[in-house]
Design brief:
- The protein has a two-stranded antiparallel ribbon with strand order 1-2.
- The protein has one domain: Aminohydrolase, N-terminal nucleophile (Ntn) domain (Glutamine Phosphoribosylpyrophosphate, subunit 1, domain 1).
- Helix 2 packs antiparallel against helix 3.
- It has 3 helices and 2 strands.
- With 90 residues, it is α+β, with helices and mostly antiparallel strands.
């Protein structure tokens, strides 16, 4: 997980998904997979006024939730919305 996170370039969302993939490749949860989620927050940087959430994505009840989360994260990165406050930079 650590290697995947540290060696992946780009937005934090991509690095976090890479860490999830690394954890799964390392054995994952013995109960299997069903859902995956990603929440990124930063003060004054949310995409909605008075909300610090930059990104919130969730995949439920999927046979391959990490792969589906990665697909959605890539779509989000293609159209990444601007932050609400100008002082918040990507």
């Amino acid at each position: 997980m650590i290697d995947a996170f540290e060696n992946t370039k780009g937005h934090l969302s991509r690095r976090l998904v890479a860490a999830l993939e690394g954890g799964q490749a390392g054995g994952g949860d013995k109960r299997g997979q069903q859902s995956a989620a990603l929440v990124i927050v930063k003060k004054n940087c949310g995409v909605w006024l008075h909300n610090d959430t930059i990104l919130r994505l969730q995949v439920d009840d999927s046979p391959e939730p990490i792969a589906e989360l990665k697909r959605v994260v890539e779509k989000w990165n293609e159209r990444k919305p601007r932050s609400v406050s100008p002082e918040c930079r990507p």
